[in-house]
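Q: Here's a chain of 159 amino acids. Please give me its 3D structure as C-alpha coordinates.
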Amino acid sequence: MLLATRDFVLSSLELVEEDAFGPGASVWACDTTIAKGRALWVGHRNPDGTTELYAYLALIAANLGGLPVMEAKKAWTDPEWRRRGLGRGLLLRAAQIAPVLSDSDGMTDEAFAQWNSSLGLRKRWWDEKTRNFVAEATVPQEDRHTGYAQGSRWRILLG
Protein backbone atom coordinates (compact mmCIF):
# COMPACT_ATOMS: atom_id res chain seq x y z
CA MET A 1 0.00 0.00 0.00
CA LEU A 2 1.27 3.44 -0.85
CA LEU A 3 2.02 5.14 2.44
CA ALA A 4 3.38 8.56 1.57
CA THR A 5 4.86 10.74 -1.12
CA ARG A 6 8.22 9.13 -0.35
CA ASP A 7 6.81 6.25 -2.39
CA PHE A 8 6.79 8.49 -5.50
CA VAL A 9 9.60 7.84 -7.98
CA LEU A 10 10.34 11.42 -8.99
CA SER A 11 13.00 10.34 -11.48
CA SER A 12 10.09 9.13 -13.68
CA LEU A 13 8.29 12.49 -13.42
CA GLU A 14 6.23 13.64 -16.42
CA LEU A 15 4.37 16.93 -16.83
CA VAL A 16 0.76 16.12 -17.77
CA GLU A 17 -0.71 19.64 -17.89
CA GLU A 18 1.04 22.86 -16.99
CA ASP A 19 -0.84 25.30 -14.72
CA ALA A 20 -4.00 23.13 -14.93
CA PHE A 21 -5.35 24.62 -11.68
CA GLY A 22 -3.76 28.05 -11.96
CA PRO A 23 -0.19 29.36 -11.97
CA GLY A 24 2.14 26.89 -10.25
CA ALA A 25 -0.54 24.19 -9.91
CA SER A 26 0.36 21.75 -12.68
CA VAL A 27 -0.64 18.09 -13.04
CA TRP A 28 2.26 15.64 -12.92
CA ALA A 29 2.55 11.85 -13.20
CA CYS A 30 5.21 9.48 -11.90
CA ASP A 31 5.75 5.85 -11.03
CA THR A 32 5.58 4.66 -7.43
CA THR A 33 7.64 2.17 -5.47
CA ILE A 34 4.60 -0.11 -5.42
CA ALA A 35 4.57 -2.64 -8.28
CA LYS A 36 2.54 -1.35 -11.23
CA GLY A 37 1.83 1.85 -9.31
CA ARG A 38 1.32 5.28 -10.78
CA ALA A 39 0.70 8.61 -9.08
CA LEU A 40 -0.99 11.69 -10.48
CA TRP A 41 -0.43 14.82 -8.48
CA VAL A 42 -0.97 18.56 -8.52
CA GLY A 43 1.89 20.77 -7.50
CA HIS A 44 4.92 22.74 -8.48
CA ARG A 45 8.54 21.80 -9.17
CA ASN A 46 10.88 24.53 -8.00
CA PRO A 47 14.08 25.36 -9.93
CA ASP A 48 16.13 23.86 -7.06
CA GLY A 49 14.40 20.48 -7.59
CA THR A 50 12.15 20.65 -4.53
CA THR A 51 8.47 19.89 -4.89
CA GLU A 52 5.36 21.60 -3.57
CA LEU A 53 2.52 19.08 -3.45
CA TYR A 54 -1.13 20.18 -3.25
CA ALA A 55 -3.00 16.94 -4.03
CA TYR A 56 -2.35 13.41 -5.27
CA LEU A 57 -4.07 10.25 -6.42
CA ALA A 58 -2.18 6.96 -6.13
CA LEU A 59 -3.18 4.20 -8.54
CA ILE A 60 -2.30 0.53 -9.03
CA ALA A 61 -2.82 -1.39 -12.27
CA ALA A 62 -5.47 -4.07 -11.88
CA ASN A 63 -7.78 -6.26 -13.91
CA LEU A 64 -11.53 -6.33 -13.56
CA GLY A 65 -13.06 -9.35 -15.24
CA GLY A 66 -10.62 -9.06 -18.16
CA LEU A 67 -10.80 -5.25 -18.32
CA PRO A 68 -7.53 -3.44 -17.52
CA VAL A 69 -8.19 -0.73 -14.91
CA MET A 70 -6.35 1.45 -12.42
CA GLU A 71 -7.42 0.96 -8.80
CA ALA A 72 -7.39 4.17 -6.77
CA LYS A 73 -5.59 3.28 -3.54
CA LYS A 74 -5.05 6.62 -1.84
CA ALA A 75 -5.87 10.28 -2.41
CA TRP A 76 -5.08 13.42 -0.50
CA THR A 77 -5.53 17.17 -0.87
CA ASP A 78 -3.74 19.81 1.20
CA PRO A 79 -6.32 21.55 3.44
CA GLU A 80 -5.37 24.95 1.95
CA TRP A 81 -6.18 23.64 -1.54
CA ARG A 82 -9.49 21.91 -0.81
CA ARG A 83 -12.68 22.94 -2.59
CA ARG A 84 -10.79 23.86 -5.78
CA GLY A 85 -11.58 20.70 -7.77
CA LEU A 86 -8.13 19.12 -7.54
CA GLY A 87 -9.32 15.67 -6.45
CA ARG A 88 -12.05 15.56 -9.08
CA GLY A 89 -9.60 16.82 -11.69
CA LEU A 90 -7.14 14.05 -10.87
CA LEU A 91 -9.93 11.44 -11.14
CA LEU A 92 -10.89 12.82 -14.56
CA ARG A 93 -7.29 12.71 -15.78
CA ALA A 94 -6.78 9.19 -14.41
CA ALA A 95 -9.90 8.01 -16.25
CA GLN A 96 -8.35 9.27 -19.50
CA ILE A 97 -5.50 6.79 -18.95
CA ALA A 98 -7.70 3.81 -18.03
CA PRO A 99 -11.00 3.22 -16.24
CA VAL A 100 -10.56 3.97 -12.51
CA LEU A 101 -11.81 1.50 -9.91
CA SER A 102 -12.60 2.47 -6.33
CA ASP A 103 -10.38 1.17 -3.54
CA SER A 104 -10.99 -2.45 -2.50
CA ASP A 105 -10.74 -1.28 1.13
CA GLY A 106 -13.83 0.90 0.76
CA MET A 107 -14.22 4.69 0.82
CA THR A 108 -14.75 7.48 3.31
CA ASP A 109 -17.86 9.64 3.08
CA GLU A 110 -15.76 12.41 1.51
CA ALA A 111 -14.23 10.11 -1.11
CA PHE A 112 -17.65 8.68 -1.99
CA ALA A 113 -19.07 12.20 -2.46
CA GLN A 114 -16.20 13.06 -4.79
CA TRP A 115 -16.59 9.87 -6.84
CA ASN A 116 -20.34 10.39 -6.98
CA SER A 117 -19.92 13.95 -8.27
CA SER A 118 -17.49 13.08 -11.07
CA LEU A 119 -19.84 14.35 -13.74
CA GLY A 120 -18.87 13.66 -17.30
CA LEU A 121 -17.57 10.19 -16.49
CA ARG A 122 -19.50 7.00 -17.00
CA LYS A 123 -20.10 5.39 -13.59
CA ARG A 124 -20.77 1.66 -13.19
CA TRP A 125 -21.06 -0.56 -10.12
CA TRP A 126 -19.09 -3.81 -9.81
CA ASP A 127 -20.13 -6.63 -7.47
CA GLU A 128 -17.04 -8.45 -6.17
CA LYS A 129 -19.15 -11.41 -5.04
CA THR A 130 -20.70 -12.16 -8.44
CA ARG A 131 -17.81 -10.61 -10.45
CA ASN A 132 -20.29 -8.71 -12.63
CA PHE A 133 -21.49 -5.19 -13.25
CA VAL A 134 -24.82 -4.43 -11.56
CA ALA A 135 -27.42 -1.68 -11.65
CA GLU A 136 -26.83 1.03 -9.06
CA ALA A 137 -30.33 0.47 -7.65
CA THR A 138 -29.34 -3.05 -6.56
CA VAL A 139 -26.50 -1.78 -4.35
CA PRO A 140 -27.75 -1.23 -0.78
CA GLN A 141 -27.48 2.48 0.09
CA GLU A 142 -25.73 1.77 3.41
CA ASP A 143 -23.10 -0.41 1.69
CA ARG A 144 -21.97 1.99 -1.03
CA HIS A 145 -18.89 3.47 0.58
CA THR A 146 -17.90 1.67 3.73
CA GLY A 147 -14.72 -0.17 4.58
CA TYR A 148 -16.25 -3.24 6.21
CA ALA A 149 -16.54 -6.52 4.29
CA GLN A 150 -20.10 -6.06 3.01
CA GLY A 151 -19.43 -2.48 1.88
CA SER A 152 -16.21 -3.32 0.07
CA ARG A 153 -18.16 -5.85 -1.97
CA TRP A 154 -19.45 -2.99 -4.13
CA ARG A 155 -16.98 -0.97 -6.20
CA ILE A 156 -17.39 2.00 -8.52
CA LEU A 157 -15.78 2.08 -11.94
CA LEU A 158 -15.35 5.50 -13.56
CA GLY A 159 -14.60 5.93 -17.24
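Q: Can you summarize the key feature?
A: The helical segments are 86-97, 109-116.
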